[in-house]
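Field log, afternoon session.

UNIT: design team B
ACTIVITY: writing a sequence onto a fixed backbone
BACKBONE:
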């Protein structure tokens, strides 16, 4: 029944993704989830110093931004388009930083360029919060807010008008963490790392405890593992931990020598690889059992309700209080059962009266017509 529902519900109305369908990856949430796969794979290849996989996944992640741009523009939500520009700047800076290291083994000559791009992305987001939002130049989208709230996704902080703004705040913290890592600035790295981890954990808590949104919870778990993998990698470079420093050299996952296991970058590779575990469990365990009806999930039913609400016409607005009082004044008081029976009989008689009158008129017309017909003259009798 899950497959039937996933085919009958209009894919464009996906909000919380359903069980598998090829069109999922071209929906809003599905395209973002697929973008996470590409980005984690890019970081994993980068941590391993693998040039071609890193360039392939990094280029694919950049190209997939076209799909995200399509959804942002088609939604006609100015806030989405604005924040997508910051996301593209962030990914571009990350790509430049990665390409310089995996290509030459030294990122010193690309660090200034990537830092400028990340600073531009942060300034772009801060300009929204400091200027555009307070002045109401880019107001929050009311339709998007209603959709997230109908699914039970709402930030615990009143500053954020919808769940999407909460996710954008997470992007800002992550950007600050990456810029601090890029510049090896310890205080700001810790300052940005803490909210990045806490918000990522809160995403998991809300999506799981609100309505057991399995698909979104699995992707948020992968996202948290991704943050922890980056954290482990940055520890060795930013703080140069004694015995675990020199993380500018990549070590394969299969390495077991003392040099490799004393590098935080090696542990980062394993954490990034483990980030795919919830995704694999989602597609290889949860999805088949759900399609066979072995698991009941809130993702399917919640989407079904949301789509029905969007397709149904809006109920009429209630009349103003004065009109409600007039309507209440016109309503007659309750009547006794005997009087109600007599009233019913009277209504039946009154309803049948026109029919009886019409029948009488027809009979009268026939009688008058018969009176007007001349009588035939009597004939002589044969006798």
């Amino acid at each position: 029944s899950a497959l039937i529902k996933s085919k009958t519900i209009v894919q464009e109305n996906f909000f919380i993704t359903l069980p598998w369908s090829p069109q999922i990856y071209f929906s809003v949430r599905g395209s973002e989830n697929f973008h996470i796969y590409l980005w984690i794979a890019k970081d994993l290849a980068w941590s391993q110093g693998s040039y071609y996989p890193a360039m392939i996944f990094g280029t694919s992640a950049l190209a997939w931004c076209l799909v995200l741009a399509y959804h942002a523009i088609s939604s006609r939500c100015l806030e989405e388009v604005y924040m997508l520009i910051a996301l593209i700047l962030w990914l571009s800076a990350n790509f430049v930083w990665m390409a310089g290291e995996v290509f030459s083994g030294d990122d010193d000559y690309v660090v200034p360029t990537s830092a400028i791009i990340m600073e531009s992305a942060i300034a772009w987001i801060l300009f929204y919060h400091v200027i555009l939002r307070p002045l109401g130049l880019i107001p929050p989208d009311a339709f998007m807010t209603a959709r997230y709230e109908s699914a039970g996704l709402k930030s615990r902080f009143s500053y954020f008008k919808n769940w999407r703004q909460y996710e954008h705040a997470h992007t800002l913290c992550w950007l600050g963490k990456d810029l601090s890592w890029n510049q090896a600035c310890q205080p700001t790295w810790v300052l940005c790392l803490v909210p990045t981890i806490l918000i990522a954990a809160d995403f998991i808590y809300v999506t799981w405890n609100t309505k057991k949104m399995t698909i979104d919870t699995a992707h948020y778990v992968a996202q948290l593992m991704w943050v922890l993998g980056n954290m482990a990698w940055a520890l060795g470079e930013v703080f140069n931990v004694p015995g675990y420093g020199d993380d500018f050299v990549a070590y394969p996952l299969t390495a077991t020598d003392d040099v490799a296991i004393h590098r935080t970058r090696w542990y980062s590779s394993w954490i990034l690889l483990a980030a795919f575990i919830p995704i694999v469990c989602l597609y290889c365990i949860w999805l088949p059992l759900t399609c066979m009806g072995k698991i009941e999930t809130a993702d399917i039913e919640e989407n079904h309700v949301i789509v029905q609400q969007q397709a149904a016409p809006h109920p009429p607005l209630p009349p103003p209080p004065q009109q409600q009082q007039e309507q209440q004044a016109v309503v007659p008081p309750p009547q006794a059962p005997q009087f109600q029976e007599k009233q019913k009989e009277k209504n039946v008689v009154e309803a049948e009266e026109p029919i009886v009158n019409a029948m009488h008129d027809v009979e009268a017309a026939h009688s008058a017509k018969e009176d007007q017909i001349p009588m035939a003259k009597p004939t002589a009798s044969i006798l």
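LOG NOTE: The chain has a mean pLDDT of 79.
NEXT ACTIVITY: expression trials, pending approval
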